[in-house]
Amino acid sequence: MKKTIVISPKDLVGVALYPLKKGEEAEGVTLKEDIEKGHKFSLRAISKGENIIKYGEVIGRATADISCGEHIHSHNMSTGLEGTLEYSYNKKEIAPAGEFRSRKVNVYERKNGDVGIRNELWVIPTVGCVNAQARAIVETFNKKHGELPGIDGCFTFTHPYGCSQIGEDHERTKMILQRMVKHPNCGGVLVLGLGCENNRMDVFRETLGEYDESRTEFLVAQEVGDEIAEGVKHLEKLYEAAKNDRRTEKDISCLKVGLKCGGSDGLSGITANPLVGRFSDYIASVGGTTVLTEVPEMFGAEQLLMDRAKDKATFDKIVKLVNGFKEYYQKHDQPVYENPSPGNKAGGITTLEDKSLGCTQKSGTREVCDVLFDGDKLTANGLNLLNGPGNDMVAVTNLASAGCHMVLFTTGRGTPFGGFVPTVKISTNSDLAKRKSNWIDLDAGGIAAGESFESKLDELIDLVTEVANGKQTVNERYNSRDIAIFKTGVTL
């Protein structure tokens, strides 16, 4: 059984795949102390101030002299990142894609030509003041009708916003909710307002753009006597319109898949993230679409993404994406590189460069075809980058709002969270998958034990196909469905 790994021949560190004991031999060196799973140890003596290499790239610098076989972590290593940077466009030649077998999925074709992988009824509040009413409408409807043949369930997605917001925050809240209203996984939607909020229903409808009027209902609570009863009537109308929808066969290239990690550990960049990167390459090669977000977790690895930009214009967009987020931190007088989290560090990730180089493994090796900012829609097949923070709930909400049908979510520490689209949890280690089978959909930990990426990729493609065809993810089975909207300004 392989107990350690050196990711690149350039590396100065090895990584423990299993807990190691002081005195053990590992990668040709004798360990000076115990090394926990996912943590790093030195392959040679490293001088104070010297760059430390992992993934073949710099992940920080030594803050003390480090002897051969010593544990490397926060006590003797720190980030080397500082401020905003200037970047140069050095387009990397992308190797031709291998031969991939395309597959078929069974999806719902919507009136405007979009496809969805679910046929659900949604209640979307325009303002947090009616969250309880939205929940009551759904609960009353579900209790009254029991099983609902022809649809995949009725749900609401509550949030605390929609009023006392101005500027970008107000516009972003409205935009996210409008994107949800028109998401193709939704077969019918009731938009529920209060009546006096900033996010007024009349303006919401005027700026909604084209939508299927036969699948969209609006209700203002202050304008009716019993908003619960009225809401149920609207849902019954939507159910009649949606219950006869049927799946139709399409090529898997119709899918748009979000890429996200959360609760990462030292194995994230070794097992689950590279696996998802191979999936991204597969989808891009057959004509489909993937989307990578979490801009702060690109810091330290951004040049690698920039070198894969399809052209100079796309490179310029990546620079804007990265430096724009750094400037957002600086505007609020916050450190740009205040990352990784305590859980990340406990799992073996030391610096932001360490985290980012592992995180961006999810992007695979294909070229970056486009970059999306607030309000942009997915238009390019292949790998896209999306503006937004690393926060799990915000990032998954952003991915789904951009048009993703599902999100592949890798995790080493574990999380039960799910978004408003199916959220496929992929564990970086088998221990997590065994302990938390009520959270995890796929175990990538076997890769550390010697399973091939090729066999796991086939398993992941099979799972994505099954989810697209209607198989519930764990978050769906346990009804873990939430949204969070990014906020940058003041509250009135």
Care to give the gist of this entry?
The chain has 492 residues and is of the alpha/beta class. It has helices at 131-145, 167-181, 201-206, 227-242, 272-285, 302-306, 312-331, 342-346, 352-359, 392-401, 430-435, 453-468, 474-477; strands at residues 4-5, 13-16, 25-26, 29-30, 40-42, 51-54, 57-62, 71-72, 77-78, 104-109, 115-116, 120-125, 154-156, 186-193, 216-220, 248-251, 256-261, 289-292, 368-372, 382-386, 406-411, 423-427, 442-443.
Protein topology:
Blueprint: E1 4-5, E2 13-16, E3 25-26, E4 29-30, E5 40-42, E6 51-54, E7 57-62, E8 71-72, E9 77-78, E10 104-109, E11 115-116, E12 120-125, H1 131-145, E13 154-156, H2 167-181, E14 186-193, H3 201-206, E15 216-220, H4 227-242, E16 248-251, E17 256-261, H5 272-285, E18 289-292, H6 302-306, H7 312-331, H8 342-346, H9 352-359, E19 368-372, E20 382-386, H10 392-401, E21 406-411, E22 423-427, H11 430-435, E23 442-443, H12 453-468, H13 474-477
Parallel strand pairs: 12-13, 12-14, 14-15, 17-18, 17-21, 18-20, 19-20, 21-22, 22-23
Antiparallel strand pairs: 1-2, 2-5, 3-4, 5-8, 6-7, 7-9, 10-11, 10-16
Helix pairs in contact: 1-4, 2-10, 5-12
